[in-house]
Amino acid sequence: MVHGKKLAKETLLPSVLEDDDAETESEKLQLGERGASRTEVDVRGPKDQRSSSDGNVLDRGEREGEEKEEEEEEEEEEEELGGEEFVISDEDCDTDLELEGTEEAYDPTGQTYYMEACERLQVVPASSFLRHIRDSELSMAHYGLGPQGTKALAVPLVTNTSILRLNLRDNWMEGMGGAAMAKMLKENCYITEVDLSDNNLGDYGARAIAGMLKENSTLVSLNLSGNHFTDRSTEHLGPALITNTRLQHLDISHNALGERAGQILGDSLSENTGLRSLSLAWNGIRGRGAVMLANGLGGNISLRTVDLSFNGFSKEGAIALGQALKENNILEELNMSNNRIPPEGAIRLTMGLRVNKTIKSLNMGRNPILSAGCYGILKSIQENPDSAMEALNFAGIPVNQDFEDLYTKVKEIFPALTINHGGRIGTFRKAKA
Question: Is the entire prediction scored with pTM above 0.70?
Answer without folding.
Answer: yes
